[in-house]
Amino acid sequence: MPGFTVSQTVAAPPAETFAVFSDLDHAAGRIAEIVRIEKLTPGPVGVGTRFKETRVMFGREATETFEFTEYTPGVAYAFVGVNCGVEYRCRFAFAPEGAGTRVDVTFRTRALNLWAKLFTPLAYLMRGMMRRCMARDLDQLRAAAEARRQAA
Hints:
Oligomer: single chain
CATH architecture: 2-Layer Sandwich
Distance between the termini: 42 Å
Radius of gyration: 15 Å
Strand content: 35-45%
Order of helices and strands: EHHEEEEEEHH
Strand order of the largest sheet: 1-7-6-5-4-3-2
Number of helices: 4
CATH topology: Alpha-D-Glucose-1,6-Bisphosphate, Chain A, domain 4
Helix content: 25-40%
CATH superfamily: START domain
Number of domains: 1
């Protein structure tokens, strides 16, 4: 199935950028389309942490459950979710760039059953829309990280 990478440069160091981007408790206030996030695993966020994200997509609320599969503070995190026979993988990588941070977000999908495989052509058509959605999320997170940096 299709995938893509979206990049953004943030005017804040990697550790600060990572902290804002991975902050589940404040994601709903930073990304307009997210209605709420419910952490399902107690304790600090790390590999194995599960959460439910409810966001507005196509004018309707949709809830997905995700699990962190990678979590290295200041460097990268990734999470995976499954819905309707499709596995969704999203990875955020943080690297120093000048005085700021380059954030690369890679989004991949994989059909897990025949039904999902039959809809693969539709997924290719939706790739552009998903890419724009991810770019909006990145813009909003960048703004939050830079505002936090200016307030400090």
